[in-house]
Amino acid sequence: AAAHNGSAGAGPAAAARPPATPEGMALAYGSLVLMALLPIFFGALRSVSCAKSKNSSEMPETITSRDAARFPIVASCTLLGLYLFFKIFSQEYINLLLSMYFFVLGILALSHTISPMMNRFFPANFPNKQYQLLFTEGSGESKEEIVNYEFDTKDLVCLALSSVVGVWYLLRKHWIANNLFGLAFSLNGVELLHLNNVSTGCILLGGLFIYDVFWVFGTNVMVTVAKSFEAPIKLVFPQDLLEKGLEADNFAMLGLGDIVIPGIFIALLLRFDISLKKNTHTYFYTSFVAYIFGLGLTIFIMHIFKHAQPALLYLVPACIGFPLLVALAKGEVTELFSYESSAEILPHTPRLTHFPTVSGSPASLADSMQQKLSCPRRRRQQSPSAM
Hints:
Helix content is 62%, strand content 10%. The protein has helices at residues 22-51, 65-88, 91-118, 153-172, 175-192, 198-218, 221-228, 241-244, 257-276, 282-305, 312-330, 333-338, 341-344, 362-374, and strands at 2-3, 61-63, 130-137, 144-152, 193-195, 234-238, 251-255, 309-310. Keywords: Endoplasmic reticulum, Hydrolase, Membrane, Transmembrane, Transmembrane helix.
């Protein structure tokens, strides 16, 4: 998403507010960059464990070249549909429904995110009981499982902690609760959505490059939706935190699409590094540095021109160009483009049928995460994911 002003922005303060101080702006921008890097780094690490999972229900969704080609079209339709909804119906009632929807979705996403970390804090003698939620249709030989979800006491504790954050967000819409949900969505997206090869990644990022530029510079649709949409589909940080404390309200913003989309490409390069069996993570660290450079350039340009910027305009060339230059220098271009993530690690991964969020299309991530987090599945292994 474009980073822009006020309740949905990362630019200078709105006209109705006093200008942000240089210190406040630096703190806000620096915090947004740091928050964007965390889900990409840890999500990429967890994507490796996710890919190697023996449990079929834990396998990630694989994005094919066909999915990648359709993605900008689907995202554009979603964005335009949201724009029309906000123009036709009352913004208050739409956001009320969205708040309830993301309340449930955010709790599930946050619980899934903190579960591996929380397992380390439970004592060895913790009374961990096993539970199973089973819902079937029919009887006898024709009986069919609709829901078969196994969980334990530790999972319930994580769910309870996540519910506290959910209630906080529902009642206050506080920016910290928003960010906790946003970080959880981003990390889950990077972990569970896998590109099957580098060519698919180039198609996806290239299509969204055009999508982001068109909807930000060509129309006011992206900006209107971002300002109207009250949901944790962006990371925010107040530029007036130093003056107003936790009650600050002049926010800088970064859409989750600008984290998840480059993030799944960076995670693919990490899995490629591992496939080379050289005990180096050259391509992962190169793309990671490229992301930092691209995001920093986005903030710099936005600060200079005082206008919302499509972050993918800068992130896509950096995240694709830097690793490609490294591959050319090392003579590994053929290996890079011939690498098949799904063939090497995921022999039977399902195709992606729901799309992750992209800049300005928040409903897409909701669909994707809801399918992954609320579908019937087996309980996760007790050993925490690689962090």
